[in-house]
Specification:
The complex is a heterodimer.
Chain A lengths: L1 E5 L26 H21 L2 E4 L13 H11 L5 E7 L6 H14 L4 E6 L6 H4 L6 H17 L5 E4 L4 E5 L13 E4 L3 H10 L2 E5 L2 H19 L8 E9 L3 H19 L3 H4 L7 H10 L22 H6 L3 E4 L1 H14 L5 E5 L6 H22 L6
Parallel strand pairs in A: 1-2, 1-11, 2-3, 3-4, 4-7, 7-8, 8-9, 9-10, 9-11
Antiparallel strand pairs in A: 5-6
Chain B lengths: L17 E5 L2 E8 L4 E5 L9 H8 L3 E5 L16 H14 L5 E6 L1 H12 L4 E7 L25 H5 L14 H18 L20 E6 L7 H9 L5 E5 L6 H4 L1 H11 L2
Parallel strand pairs in B: 3-4, 3-5, 5-6, 6-7, 7-8
Antiparallel strand pairs in B: 1-2, 2-4
Helix pairs in contact in B: 1-8, 2-3
The chains are: A alpha/beta, B alpha/beta.
Chain lengths: 391, 269
């Protein structure tokens, strides 16, 4: 099992002051540049610590958000490429449904992969639909545009006979050409996040790592679909390294301390869900039948899990113990965290990548302690668990 | 004109519609009344709620109300993606139906299409009425002229489109097929007007081409595009007349249908 540390690089000091407006229209004046400077540098130091302790690193990006100050995966990874030496560096992901210049995306991947000596891994994802309100990319045809951008980026990464021309439905380039090309040939390993079996099918067909972000039900639905499709298309079993699951993680020597930290971590979840309702579902992306339901009800629907697996409604907001039951969170002393991960691992047929999200209002010291305990006492046992089953 | 076998939606308050094929595009059309031809272009929500307005118009005109490609059951070929494309489509529509001496009326988004069409086809259109149209940029780049309807959930649109009681419209008791059609219409509207939001940067410089008698009708309580925008719009169409309607919002043709029809009828006999 490979584990990947992940923190959203939150600007949490604004959460209480703007509890209902943390994204898109979040007032920029709430952010103190000096505080942001301190926080961002702490986040980078946490990643450097992970590198020293043998953990890999995952970054993401969001836009105009108090819940994530990373505005570009490749900018963050560009810094980490020179501050780390061993860790694999995963961008999960680059939201090319919103990013209007796939050419630039490909260039940045080539650059960072070269600087890092081939340690980059890439998820070309659709991204949060509500961020179309920022990029102004059209919601209509966004799926088609995503796939054209995807194909273009992959073509740019793998072709060594550039330049070539691209005259597509959505993008047009005279000279598609990146210098430097990727250090890893033909291109870095590729990932895809999914919440539904349909995109799990596509991930299997493309031989990408399929990543499920914190929703156990989605893993239970999508992993078997992926395995079956992988077998059908590639004629062999998908190895465990093709599967990834992201969970909230809090580790401490003492269970009560870990749960206290877990409560701070869940503040991230609470903040990120409080997106203003008007941005939740941009028009022209969902089927009209689904939109009709929202029109009738006079409210937006989200995919957020509100119940425990047995149907019991969760507290509002959910507690750490409830999120542990839901396999969205793994918290406790190192033994407990390992057992929680193993139980979930066994229930979904295994996975070879565990994405370890920490953050929320956890302090820098708390995160460093949690990372260290995870690396020293949990990670070796996870590696043992998957010995011989990774590609 | 060939009859298309696809089901034409039944829209409350409108007579039975027909499906026709215009240059390979199958569109639904509703028509009623006798007299001078009045071609009506609907707003972004489609032809829903148009019964009173079109009925009143049909007492004085031969009203032809098509659903734009992508709306209310009409097909949208993949090549029709912009309002200018819609205007080109209506050039075909007018020629194929051999419409002449047309009073062209458009409201809101339909007013935008009508304005674009009027800059293209001078011969067959002999009167133009734009009811609370969008479609042009007036103010500086830091000032939004037109309320961004796409940042507002569809269920909250009545609060912004209407004046008076209709502002409180809720959809809980609406039939399923109507709800799906309204949602699909909004998707089509989004496709055509997402960005730049509800205008074509080139239209303003083309409005000088409109030489036919023109009327702009504006709800005084319009909070999507205010009366000041209407004055600017009117100033760009030589010889046009702007009239305002009291106690009417952006959908003035629904809020005060008789007044809007009276103004159109007194301008275009």
């Amino acid at each position: 099992m490979r584990s990947w540390y992940f923190c959203e690089q939150e600007y949490w000091p604004a959460w209480e002051r703007q509890p209902n407006n943390p994204r898109i229209s979040a007032p920029s004046g709430e952010v103190d540049p000096k505080v942001a400077h301190k926080l961002l540098n702490e986040y980078i130091e946490e990643c450097v610590l992970c590198d020293k302790l043998g953990l890999n690193i995952m970054v993401n990006e969001h836009h105009a958000s108090y819940t994530c100050m990373s505005v570009s995966c490749m900018v963050t990874l560009g810094m980490l490429a020179t501050r780390t030496s061993r860790a694999r560096l995963l961008a999960l992901g680059i939201p090319i449904m919103s990013r209007i210049e796939p050419h630039r995306v490909a260039e940045e991947i080539g650059y960072v992969d070269t600087v890092s000596g081939g340690r980059v891994e890439i998820g070309l994802i659709k991204g949060s639909p509500f961020e179309l309100f920022l990029s102004n990319s059209a919601p209509a045809d966004s799926n088609d545009r995503y796939w054209e951008a995807h194909d273009l980026v992959i073509e740019m990464l793998k072709r060594r006979d550039g330049p070539f021309s691209w005259e597509g439905e959505h993008f047009n380039y005279r000279y598609a050409n990146i210098i430097p090309p990727c250090y890893q040939q033909p291109h870095p390993p590729l990932w895809l996040t999914t919440l539904n079996p349909k995109s799990a099918l596509q991930a299997a067909q493309l031989d990408y790592v399929v990543a499920i972000v914190g929703i156990a039900r989605a893993a239970r639905e999508s992993f078997p679909v992926y395995r079956e499709e992988y077998r059908r298309v590639h004629g062999r079993e998908a190895s465990l390294d093709r599967f990834a699951y992201l969970g909230y993680v809090s580790v401490a020597e003492d269970e009560d301390v870990a749960l206290e930290r877990a409560g701070k971590l869940l503040k991230f979840s609470e903040a990120s869900e409080r997106i203003p309702e008007r941005f939740v579902a941009p028009p022209a992306m969902l089927p009209p039948e689904v939109e009709a339901g929202m029109l009738q009800e006079g409210r937006m629907r989200t995919h957020r899990t509100k119940t425990l697996p047995d149907g019991t409604p969760m507290s509002n907001p959910p507690t750490p113990r409830e999120q542990i039951i839901n396999n969205a969170m793994f918290a406790g002393n190192p033994d407990q965290v390992f057992e929680q991960i193993k139980e979930f691992y066994d229930s979904v047929g295994g996975f070879g990548n565990f994405l370890v999200q920490m953050g929320g209002t956890m302090t820098h010291e708390e995160k460093k302690d949690s990372i260290s305990l995870f690396a020293k006492h949990v990670q070796p046992r996870l590696e043992e668990l998957t010995t011989g089953r990774m590609a | 004109m060939s009859i298309w076998e696809r089901t034409v939606p039944e829209i409350h308050g409108l007579p039975k519609g027909a499906a026709i094929d215009v240059s390979g595009v199958k569109v639904c059309v509703w028509s009623k009344g006798e007299g001078r031809t009045l071609l009506y272009l609907h707003p972004g929500s489609g032809l829903h709620d148009h019964g009173d307005f079109l009925d009143a118009l049909s007492k004085r005109y031969h009203v032809i109300a098509p659903a734009h490609p992508g709306f209310d059951g009409s097909q949208r070929p993949s090549a029709i993606t912009s309002v200018s494309d819609l205007a080109f489509f209506y050039l075909d529509f007018i020629e194929q139906l051999d419409l002449r001496n047309i009073v062209l009326v458009g409201s809101s988004f339909g007013g935008w299409i009508a304005a674009e069409l009027a800059t293209m086809a001078a011969e067959r259109i002999t009167g133009l009425a734009l009811v609370d149209p969008v479609g042009i940029k007036v103010s500086d780049r830091m000032t939004r002229d037109i309320l961004d309807l796409f940042s507002i959930p569809l269920y909250d649109h009545p609060k912004h489109l209407f004046h008076g009681e209709r502002r409180n419209t809720v959809y809980v008791d609406y039939p399923r097929d109507v709800l799906v059609r309204l949602a699909a219409n909004h998707d089509a509207f989004t496709r055509f007007a997402w960005s730049p939001t509800l205008y074509n940067p080139k239209l303003r410089e083309r409005l000088h081409r409109i030489k036919v008698p023109s009327l702009l009708v504006w709800g005084e309580e319009d909070c999507i595009v205010n009366v000041g925008y209407g004055k600017a719009f009117s100033n760009l169409i030589a010889g046009s007349q702007l009239v305002t309607i009291k106690s009417a919002g952006h959908y003035s043709f629904i809020d005060r249908a008789p007044s809007v029809v009276d103004h159109i009828a007194s301008k275009f006999l």
